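Forwarding these from the shared drive since the link keeps breaking.
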Amino acid sequence: MTIRATEQLKRDHRALRDLFSEYLSTRGHELQLLREIRTRLELHSQLEEELFYPALAEVERGLERVQAAQRDHREVRELLDELSLLKPDDEAFDRTMRQLIQVVEAHVALEESALFPVARDDLGTGRLDEMGEEMELRRLTTPRPPVPPARGSEHHP
């Protein structure tokens, strides 16, 4: 059974919130968490930018909201690039990670309160279901970086 596009995106949002909570509550696994956050954000953004946003931009109430969401995506990419140049013990790492969390949380709020209702009302459930099928296919076929070892399983010779 296909999961509607907006439901898949909400599921991604929940997974990101869980990763952010884990980052804020633990120490010692920052790079592993950053890799997982980056991987999830990149796939999520790709699905939105290639499937969801173009469809939403076609409706009158969608274009301005999509443009705001795309600005958020650019800011997220910039922060991820910044983080890739830092080490967890760098002073700027935690500050930049917290800024990333803030930007993503605001973006999620925008999507769930402003974009998803417009998508439901103006695109309709049939179109969202079709997008959901395409998203599922892309999730299965998009190459992903290797999964880092589970925490606690790192081997130190």
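-- next protein --
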Amino acid sequence: MRIGICQKSCLNIDRVTLVRNAAFRKNKGEMGHILRNCVHGGDNFIAKGEDRMLLFKIFLVLHILAGFLALCIFWIPIVTKKGGKLHNRIGWIYVAAMSAVSLSALYLAVYRIFFDVTSDANRVAFSWFLIFIAILSSATAWYGLRVLRFKNRKQAHRNPVDLLFPALLTLSGIAISAYGFVISFPLLKWFPIIINRPVKHFQAKIRSG
């Protein structure tokens, strides 16, 4: 009788052990699957981060080259005959360069603010300045295109499209300047105010025809 009880107990213990071992192997397999996903996910995250950094460097080079080109050719239309071939070609190159400056500045700023984990307060502040530069650069390119398209127009430009960039420049200038005063960043404080006067003068010329 005692031998039977012992045999049953042993069988029960073996069953419990088997169940526990199966559960352990299952949990171990699930844990291994989770760890593999974490590793692969981390690798993917690192790979994406490296891709974004490579793209950042490309846009940075584009921004520098386009800005340098725009700065170099800015004076050529001023000293060449208005309406001539050279004047028009250089004007289009300038528009393309400023468009590249604007788009690259916007990308660089967005990357620094939202994706770069190494960004500090100064980098973030300068990135907001780049966003203002992006708006300013695109505005100058847009004004040039609108002037060429409506060069024979005599009345004031009141199209909503023509009023869009002045509104953006005004609002972004106020916001960036106020942000500069809040964080005591001199460049953000004064640049929108300094640049505001010549830009306003240019806008007035465009709107007055």
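Residues 64 and 101 are 8 Å apart (CA to CA). Confidence is low (pLDDT under 50) at residues 1-19, 205-209.

- D.
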